[in-house]
Amino acid sequence: MELTLWIPFQQGGVGSGDLFEEFLTINHWNIAPYPSYIGVKNYIGAGFSFRTRFSFNSIKQYGDTPASDNYYNVDGIVSYNLNTLFKGKTLMPFLEVGGGYSIFDEQGAGYFNLGAGVEIWLGPKKKTALTLETIYKNTGETYGVKHFQHLMGLAFLFGAKKDLDGDGIPDKEDACPEVAGIALFNGCPDTDRDGIQDEEDDCPNTPGIPAFNGCPDTDGDGVKDLEGQCPDEAGTIENDGCPEITQEIIERLQEIGKIIYFATNDSKLNERNNQILDEVFNTLQNYSSYKVVVEGHTDSSGQASFNQALSEKRANSVMRYLIEKGMSPSRVSAKGYGETRPIAPNSNPDGSDNPEGRAKNRRVDFTVTGTQMEINSID
Which of 139, 65, 44 is nearest to 99 (CA)? Predict the structure, then answer.
């Protein structure tokens, strides 16, 4: 509980002009030369307090209009200590809202109050504070006087246990007395609200799970995000949390590699090849931890040096297509093998030409490598 005695600087209603234009017009203020304000505040919890207060003053002027009225006011206010957010120890800004009843001369009206201020707690024990505050008082009564109160005073803490961090847990019972926390952890914080206090939480600013000391496993694959290579894709522990490519997919890529054909002495992709490569792209995009080497091949027609260059062009054509589709350039590369790796005879046993065999050799293959294990050539 806090007992507050203020010396208020109290602004009366404005006789002309806009009220907010008069906010800092000091020569229009009605300043009380004596303590004229008393309030009692009780801490509720979670940064909120309830306050009652009474003030009185003599009104000498309303703007430029002379007056000789007595002023009496009583308020009920709920305030919120912003220290709960800013973690301050000495400066404690606050906001407040509530209602009250004010009497000017002999005419009273109910008022809605909205205010802000700061408490500056003094000394090592923080039992006394300098308080600065301004309150806007508005009323729906036509005869009422809208006005501000500017207040300066002293606040004294009594009847309550010391609570430096303002978390509602007395310092003597608070395991973290200088940092606002929660009762579940004896006053220590759980910033990410994952049920693991910050002191024991390896990821205090990101909600996580107890199995990983408060760090997250977003995809639920048993590998925490900080250690997994694919935190948004469920994978295996053996593959650093990334999905493993299956034997069925490997076999399918083997089939695809054997049906991407090129015309003789040509490296251009036709529409049929593009449709086949779309399947390759979609498959590999589901396994983002893997890289692929596109291997180009030729038949044995022409010079070996020409075939080597042609195979490189074929591999590069496929690589460019996959990159243009959206595959990261860091995941795909190209290599040519010329005529050195045929999968079918270029000629028949009697030495005659074998067009079907040559067509099969004008192809590409795919070599896929993984994050932990390397997958051998798929050819």
Answer: 139
CA dist 337 and 351 (Å) reads 24
The pTM assigned to this predicted structure is 0.46
Which neighbouring-strand residues pair with 334? 294
Domain ranges within the chain, ordered by starting residue: 2-157, 247-378
Higher pLDDT, 263 or 162: 263
Helix H or strand E encompassing 93: strand 91-104
Question: Which of these ranges, 91-95, 121-125, 311-315, 374-378, has the smallest mean pLDDT?
Answer: 374-378
- Residue 72: both structure tokens together: 């009496």
**Sorting pLDDT into bands at 50, 70 and 90, what band is 238?**
confident
User: Which CATH architecture group holds 247-378?
Assistant: 2-Layer Sandwich (3.30)
Complete DSSP assignment for 133-166:
EEEEEE-S-TTS--EEEEEEEEEEE-SS---TT-
The identity of residue 7, as a single letter, is: I
Domain 2-157 and domain 247-378, same fold? Reply is: no
Amino acid (one-letter) located at 29: W
- Write down the CATH number for the domain with range 2-157: 2.40.160.20
Torsion of CA 81, 83, 86, 91, to 10 degrees: 120
- Element of type H or E holding 242: none
Show the DSSP H helices in the chain as ranges.
Answer: 83-86, 247-257, 271-285, 304-325, 355-361
Q: Is residue 187 a contact partner of residue 207, using CB atoms and an 8 Å limit?
A: no
Does position 10 have pLDDT exceeding 60, yes or no?
no
Q: Can you spell out the DSSP letters for 161-205?
A: ---TT-SSS-GGG-SSTTS--BGGGTTB--TT-SSS-GGG-SSTT
